[in-house]
Amino acid sequence: MMKFDQRYEKYKAPFGAVEAGSSVRFFMETDRDDSKITLRLWVDGKEELISGAREEGGVSFTYTPAHSGIVWYYFLIDGPEGRRYYSGLEGEGSIYTEQPDSYQLTVYDHYETPDWFKNTIVYQIFPDRFRRPGEILGIEEHTRLFGTPRLHESWSDSPDYLPVNGQRYYVPEDFFGGNLYGVKEKLPYLKSLGVGCIYLNPIFLSSTNHRYNTADYMTVDPMLGGDRALAELAAAAKEYGIRLMLDGVFSHTGSESVYFKEAQSNPHSPCREWYDFTEYPDKYRCWWGFETLPEVKELTPSYMEFIGGVMEKYAKMGITSWRLDVADELPDGFIEFLRKRLKSIDPEGVLLGEVWEEATNKHSMGGRRKYVDGHELDSVMDYPFRRLLMDFFLGRIDGEGLARGLLRLMENYPPQFYESLLNLMGSHDVVRAITALAGAPDRDSLTREQQAAYSPTIEQLKAGRKRFMAAAAVQYMMPGAPCLYYGDEIGMQGYRDPFNRRTYPWGREDPELLAHFRRLGQLRKACDALRLGDIQFFQAEDRRLGFTRRYGGSVLKIYCNRCGDPWDIPAGKILMGHNLQTVAPDWLTLAPKGFCIVEG
Q: Do residues 198 and 243 make contact, with C-beta atoms less than 8 angstroms apart?
């Protein structure tokens, strides 16, 4: 069995991330002295072999990584049985007779991430669909710039999803009129959920409801209330102790943007250098082939300085945190520039990336991305966490599979990066959490019409609701910042875009679910162990998961039962639970699809 002498003790997992220049001591436990054990590493694609030193109980190795990057390694065991290997993907490994997959050691340069984000709860809002406090704003300005918008008179309408007005494809140009004044009005509601950060989908001038085709970064869309509404929201949110995070869509603009129009009309404009014209001025490189989304050349110096100016403008309103759209399509040099500029404005600003895979070994744009190495992102949206939760609660993996997947993230990420992960179950890009957990068919198996009409049966919804409550308990109990996608907390349903972007049904909330999330928010704020404590799994098999969070003298135990059989657990001070029965003074029974949070 292999152990690390240096390890990240908080997670009781092998220390899989170290600062460059620091020594790492590996220790392999063995009671055999008839084998030679060697540490084999791959550093920058080259093999390095390190001989071990015999010590009581095993063999030790010392290695000092010189620079940031990924080091892959396993152990060679040469003995009477011939050559064998010891390795694994996470946690305790195994003995192999053939060359196995390698362990990963993530090496990073020193950096810090803001403590406030590690301790917060994030709430994501799609602005057009959250709250309309009065009449729809900005219609005249939108009409002047882009044409008359399609407006929904009723807040309870379903979003458009089929082409209209002779269009070949559906274009998201229908609006419900939610705006930033509506977000401001609901700040007390968000505070009741324990929210400390609001992540807003794009708010800049645009022709569409999603606003990912930016027309002007320097102008907040008038349909959202313009710059004045954003400034008022930021000031009011500050009074509630809530920060704002903006969505930076910097890999492309809209074809109707002031920058692209200038580039097309004036070949001598600095904006001309921002775009890659194959045949000037009408043929150009586009994002995923969409002609309405011309890509920019992010490393163009004038573009970089312009985006730096965008950050500075909104920092004057007190907004210094950004989520980077499609971070895997942004060059490392551009992200590094954004980090330097942001931290020079406000060291407490957070730079979060949209990355769908594990960020340490993600490959795109011709090589391994350097998100975690210390010069780019503070952290990422944790989609691997979402997949693990969904797979566990839908029966695709067992408790051991869930624990191993979570351990892999703990081991591979630098601790400050890991503690800042945005732990999500829903977003504007995935099926609504409760819909997925009710067992909805894969979206590719349904037509758009079927997706629009889909609704789980009563029994499916009951099961999905129980799974969702238990999954949320795990989400809030883990290190990282839990993120709520607007309306998930009251059971909103829907497939992917645009069905996951329906309007928030004010006055028709699920009161039990809402109370559930409020209680989770209260616990997260009140219990240091849930934000700062170590974590150790004590049950991870048979479709059950149990783990402990410990900080100082405070100990919390989280039990989650997906098994078909009841689970008898020791009683303590119950902080929260679902599907529980008291069977004896010192014992509880946790029924299937239930969870329990116990203190002590």
A: yes
